[in-house]
Amino acid sequence: MRLIILGAPGVGKGTQAKKITAKFNIAHISTGDILRAEISNKTELGSKAQEFVSSGRLVPDDLIMAMIKDRFKSPDLEKGFLMDGFPRTIEQAEKFDEILDELNLKLDKVINIILDKNEIIKRITNRIVCNSCKKVFKLADFSDRELKCDSCNSVLSKRADDSEVVVVKRLEVYEIQTKPLIEYYSNKKLLADIDGLGTEEEIFERILNHL
Ligand code: ADP
Questions:
Q1: C-alpha distances in Å from residue 158, one per residue of 53, 128, 147
Q2: pTM
Q3: Is 153 inside any structural domain?
């Protein structure tokens, strides 16, 4: 199965992406996670990407496309994949179509999670992430507990770009640069709109109904 998950920052893409990829045993390709790892490992790509990520702007397409081409050389994509955070611009989507054509692969579905802006800001400013396995938690659930991951026991922290100012910028960038992808994939008859309000399980069920 070959999927893309679309939606504004904070709609729950990453959480649902983990559930989908675990269920279907396909690769989870999160460009945000790859970039954060490159930044924390201080690689050349990381140093080029850092200023864009920390200010909530998009990393230039040439860097992202090189990263994706590299990722698609790996043999673990045979069973399928789910793209999370990519494509994010029409140019990236067109170039991704070229890569898929070259590999003779077709997308099965583009899942588009929809959520109100106020709910998004509330969720992002309340979220903390495991530094190791990237599992997402709600800060409010930890008032009297240590910030430790219940899966791998690593430390939890706020993502550097989850401050309110940067979130507002990321939402603006989404509206201008990423939202046009909804029409792009709708024209290709691949889009599945999913209401993002509800429990993780309810949203997962809604997604499964389309797969
Ligand atoms: P979110 O969807 O919550 O904004 P991500 O983890 O997907 O978070 O991305 C974090 C940041 O990484 C983005 O704000 C952007 O700077 C950069 N980034 C991730 N994916 C891409 C992409 N496909 N193209 C350009 N920049 C990207």
A1: 14, 5, 10
A2: 0.90
A3: no
